[in-house]
Design brief:
The complex is a heterodimer of chains A (175) and B (261). Chain A is of the alpha/beta class. Chain A has seven helices and five strands, in the order E-H-H-E-H-H-E-H-H-E-H-E. Chain B is 31% helix and 34% strand. Chain B has a five-stranded antiparallel β-sheet. A five-stranded antiparallel β-sheet of chain B has the order 8-7-6-9-10. Classes of the chains: A alpha/beta (175), B alpha+beta (261).
Chain lengths: 175, 261
């Protein structure tokens, strides 16, 4: 049986990888960690789109220590995690998604979602779709809504959701 | 119980290779199973079989037995759509691949293709479900692109008369890749292990679907996928300080995606 493939958006990954917490962030962090533990127990494959990687790498400054950390980070990632490139196939799919949500059948209200956000959303979603991912996890409600329209119109098969409140609820999905 | 079939109306039997016919028969079963899973959310039970009933008229007619469980889906898949119809939203990628194979045979051998339903009780009684002509097929636009791609999968076979490496992807699909003798020998050391390969892919785009038609490996490395918790534990020491410097992470990443007007 093939493993379930999960794509993580930048906002979710950053929560997983940071240590410092404000008191108000604690419930969010606990929820995320519970979910990651649940994914770990269910032996899923994590996929990182190159567009997400670009956003994540923007946190490094040009100091020597940051550059060293960045190289180490990239090395670990390339050896142990699937990173998908934004290639010609992704470009074809992203363009289709963008047009559909910009002026086509899955049109998103431009007042709700700026064009640049929509562009990034569709690029990440296209990479997930080309990788035949099952789910994409993000805490960006606008992204979830946009992807939902593509999913309902059967244009995209990737389910885009927020971290579930209680991972136990969705446990049957993994059985 | 219903049976379904397809007929290549003006093909010369000598011209259709056994492997092409075999691929078509296999893909028909995959397409029906994938449409069933798409519509019900679960795989067909053990009894849900799609079997080859007969190959007739010197290979130009194929008849299939389809189990009761799959009859509805079987009818839908067997009704071969014309290429100009919107296939992407109506069919799974497995069905689209089946239709591509059918159109390809129709185009290569300049033959109309008819699909039909027949009664298991009296196989001479048939009802035509669809007809696709060579003119319909000639309208298909295809594009072939070359680009460097990365694949993750398992080495399942190595060698042969020409140096070939077969990689099984996570979804079960197997890609037979070209490689140098040196890379093939290296791949032999990774047999049944997970690898990451980079190489030149030739991809065919048609009917809202794409498929890699050829892959030449440039680089192959062992790939040790970690569980998500182990992965995060290994990544954290080299990024947590940088993330901790940012006061509001959500706002920071949201800002990257926003318009700059």
């Amino acid at each position: 049986m093939s493993k379930k493939k999960i794509v993580l958006d930048t906002n979710v990954l950053s929560w997983a990888l940071r240590d410092k917490l404000k008191e108000s962030d604690r419930p969010k962090k606990i929820k995320a960690e519970k979910y990651f533990k649940h994914l770990s127990d269910n032996n899923v494959s994590i996929v990182l789109p190159a567009v997400v990687l670009f956003e994540l790498l923007s946190v490094y400054s040009d100091t020597d220590s940051d550059q060293r950390d960045k190289i180490q980070f990239m090395d670990t990632l390339s050896r142990h995690c699937q990173v998908t490139d934004f290639d010609d196939e992704s470009a074809v799919v992203a363009a289709e998604y963008f047009n559909l949500t910009h002026s086509g059948a899955c049109r998103d209200d431009s007042a709700e979602r700026e064009k640049s956000k929509r562009k990034t959303d569709t690029m990440i979603l296209a990479q997930a779709a080309c990788e035949k991912a099952d789910e994409l996890i993000t805490n960006d409600r606008g992204f979830i809504k946009l992807a939902g329209k593509l999913y309902e119109a059967r244009k995209c098969k990737v389910t885009v959701t927020d971290i579930p409140e209680d991972p136990q609820i969705d446990i049957e999905e993994f059985m | 119980m219903d049976g379904y079939g397809m007929r290549f109306l003006s093909i010369s039997p000598k011209e259709l290779s056994a492997s092409k016919l075999g691929e078509l028969i296999k893909q028909y079963e995959i397409a029906i199973r994938s449409e069933y899973k798409e519509s019900t959310g679960s795989k067909p039970e053990d009894g849900g079989i799609v079997a080859l009933d007969s190959i007739e008229d010197n290979c130009v007619t194929l008849r299939f037995f389809v189990a009761a469980l799959l009859v509805t889906v079987g009818a839908r898949v067997t009704r071969i759509p014309k290429p100009n119809q919107c296939l992407t939203e109506r069919y799974t990628s497995a069905s689209r691949r089946l239709y591509e194979q059918i159109y390809s045979i129709g185009s290569s051998y300049n033959t109309p293709i008819e699909s039909f339903r027949f009664s298991q009780g009296d196989q001479s009684k048939t009802e035509v479900l669809s007809v696709v002509s060579p003119e319909d097929i000639s309208q298909i636009a295809t594009a072939r692109l070359k680009s460097i791609k990365k694949l993750y999968g398992k080495v399942v076979s190595v060698g042969g008369l020409d140096p070939k490496i077969k990689i099984q992807l996570a979804d079960g699909e197997t890609i037979s890749c070209n490689a140098t003798i040196e890379l093939t020998q290296k791949a032999a050391g990774y047999l049944y292990e997970s690898v990451k390969v980079t190489g030149l892919a030739k991809t065919c785009y048609s009917l809202g679907t794409s498929s890699v038609t050829e892959f030449t490996i440039h680089c192959i490395d062992k790939f040790e996928e970690l569980s998500i918790m182990d992965l995060f534990a290994r990544l954290k020491p080299n990024i947590s300080d940088q993330l901790d410097r940012i006061d509001d992470l959500d706002e920071y990443f949201m800002d990257i995606r926003e318009d700059t007007e």
